[in-house]
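note to self — DONT lose this again. spent like an hour looking for the file last time. sequence + predicted structure for the chain T wanted, 111 res
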Amino acid sequence: LAAPAWQVTVRKNNLMLGVICLGQCWPASEALYFLWGRRNGYKLYSANVKGVRHRWLQHPETGKIEDPTMPQLNLLEDKPYPYHLGKPYRNHPTTPSKRAAELMRRVKAVR
């Protein structure tokens, strides 16, 4: 996915760590929300930990978490991510962003 200019450093870290999901939590979570989460009662959540914002899906009633970019968290920390610090988005998007729409197109193409 085309990344904003500030993600040049993120791309270098992706190559060093051997993962492709660093810096992609927003489009990945948003795509999962539109493809599956919304109709199953999930909401978009985010938290700012150590100055880094992370996003995922969480069911407000059950607390179940679906995080499509979880592998990045396991590489960056030796302890579980503090999802309990997360807050639901107040205004959920009604249409996917460009990056999420492109990811959704790619996912649908391989189905």
